Amino acid sequence: xxxxxxxxxxxxxxxxxxxxxxxxxxxxxxxxxxxxxxxxxxxxxxxxxxxxxxxxxxxxxxxxxxxxxxxxxxxxxxxxxxxxxxxxxxxxxxxxxxxxxxxxxxxxxxxxxxxxxxxxxxxxxxxxxxxxxxxxxxxxxxxxxxxxxxxxxxxxxxxxxxxxxxxxxxxxxxxxxxxxxxxxxxxxxxxxxxxxxxxxxxxxxxxxxxxxxxxxxxxxxxxxxxxxxxxxxxxxxxxxxxxxxxxxxxxxxxxxxxxxxxxxxxxxxxxxxxxxxxxxxxxxxxxxxxxxxxxxxxxxxxxxxxxxxxxxxxxxxxxxxxxxxxxxxxxxxxxxxxxxxxxxxxxxxxxxxxxxxxxxxxxxxxxxxxxxxxxxxxxxxxxxxx
Length: 386
Known about the structure:
- By secondary structure, the chain is an alpha+beta fold.
- The chain has helices at about 5-10, 15-30, 40-55, 60-65, 90-100, 105, 135-140, 285-290, 345-360, 375-385; strands spanning about 125-130, 140-150, 165-170, 175-185, 185-195, 205, 215-230, 235-240, 255-260, 270, 275-280, 290-295, 300-305, 315, 335-340.
- The protein folds into three domains: about 1-110, DnaJ domain (Helix Hairpins); about 115-165 and about 205-265, Urease metallochaperone UreE, N-terminal domain (HSP40/DNAj peptide-binding domain, Sandwich); about 270-385, Urease metallochaperone UreE, N-terminal domain (HSP40/DNAj peptide-binding domain, Sandwich), CATH 2.60.260.20.
- About 25% of the residues lie in helices and about 25% in strands.
- It is elongated and about 100 Å long.
- The two termini are about 35 Å apart.
């Protein structure tokens, strides 16, 4: 996969305006309306839009600069394609979101103008779905209940009362837009705005449906099933296309954005697909060794404490973490062993410890930091120690 900066042809230090300008030039060059029937142009258009959508957002750009494509792929990038990736319809939506409404239909030969039917895509819905870490480990199917707009059954979505039909708007001629031409020293300027009479729909209803007041849609409850893959994180989302609000005048449905919220598990600290569990052990266990039981996401596991274990030592249980979202096995579970120092001794315990102090060896000047140094530097703040 190509570098996003190389795709847009900008330096890594480029500001937001330079990124936007570079993307606009590429998008106009490779737009499908200018390259009909050229698959390579469509792919370049999609590729440029994906790069732009990451680099225009400071948070996504920071993750990309640090981790590369792995930091922004999947749901983490926040693309409308959910876990299926950034598709061509997403690219068109991004382009129209940032550059639509500025006379772009003139560039592309009028394709951007609304048809005479007045059809308009329905709004998207956004719902949040809570998940447990156990559900993340295995994947889960969720049934979501939501309230969305459906086509009105009384008028079949037309908005007109029985026996009547919508008619073309006399102001805009059914186009849904009005153009104003102004002359200036720079030449002729054309501005395009939604028609004020029909509000951009291109149609007028003289006898509205009484059931929906001419809107053509009515609220209804519905349920949808969502397959949540294993390995997701908070903020990832799935796009359920065509399950959102119904469009007006027979337009297509919007989408449902299912935003995932993974609850924290007090037993673990998560680092991608890896998990960390901190387990206190006694001084005797650290010195003499022992076998202890530690939790995993879905059960328990036996861990051997080697004699002479230092506080902070990590035992790695391979494959006992979470699945990688894109496949390729599972992460690891790291058990951090911390020697617990009692603060309330019995008389007998104090006597034994005092006896030990008389014969124990002096400690070294410095205890080497345990293994997984790079990993612990990322989680030591969560544990309050290195």
